[in-house]
Design goal:
binds coenzyme A, single chain, alpha+beta, 30% strand, 186 residues, Aminopeptidase
Length: 186
């Protein structure tokens, strides 16, 4: 991941978030209805503000950024860290201009390695990371698989998008004892 870094979010990421939240796929698959339904001009702040302090409330939220300038290309969250012992849930999105280069799979693989590393090493000491995506979201399925998150099953009507439509979703998971995904070699 030489050309990418995972870094904390910053207030000056707001223009990049505002641009990203114009993308129909991000609105449909990757942000909650509170953000998707907010007035257009308020969406970026509605997404960014709670996430700037999310490390205090049990979520590790990163900007996926280019290593050279730190420009925000997307976001990756490890959520619900304290809900079940040793487990958490990952979500991610990329700005449209940053897609098509395998960046999400590489970021996901790197985030998993960090989440599984011990607290003494600066990680989260997790054992199991899960993620889910609507079965229709084929790109996300590839991202998960390439990052070593195998499919564990289909959850019927699991995801409700901002229009209220329900979607069957794949559950993917990776354990601390699983090997790196092929994304580690990209
Ligand atoms: C999902 C997302 C992060 C992937 O971005 P990316 O890392 O640039 O992914 P890529 O464009 O490199 O595509 C990854 C793989 O999926 C495939 N893919 C992408 N879109 C696809 C589609 N619509 N149909 C089939 N395959 C698709 C690519 O061909 C590629 O396959 P490969 O691994 O065999 O090369 C990005 O599309 C996104 O932000 N989408 C909106 C938000 C979202 O869906 N987040 C996930 C919520 S669960």
């Amino acid at each position: 991941m030489d050309d990418l870094v995972l870094r904390p979010l910053r207030e000056d990421d707001e223009p990049a978030v505002a641009e990203a939240l114009q993308d129909v796929d991000i609105l449909r698959w990757a942000v909650g209805s509170a953000v998707a339904e907010a007035p257009h001009q308020d969406r970026a702040r509605a997404w960014l503000l709670p996430r700037l302090s999310s490390w205090d409330t049990g979520s590790a939220v990163f900007a996926i950024a280019d290593a050279l300038h730190g420009r925000m290309l997307g976001a990756l969250s490890i959520r619900e860290v304290n809900r079940l012992p040793d487990q958490a849930v990952v979500t991610y999105w990329l700005r449209p201009g940053a897609r098509g280069k395998g960046a999400a799979a590489r970021a996901l693989n790197a985030a998993a390695r960090w989440g599984f590393s011990s607290v003494e090493e600066g990680g989260l000491g997790l054992h199991r990371l899960t993620l889910d995506h609507a079965v229709l979201n084929l790109g996300s399925c590839r991202v998960a698989t390439r990052a070593g998150f195998g499919i564990e099953g289909t959850m019927r009507d699991f995801y409700v998008d901002a229009t209220g439509t329900r979607h069957d979703s794949h559950l993917h998971a990776r354990l601390a004892t699983d090997p790196d995904g092929e994304a580690a070699r990209l």
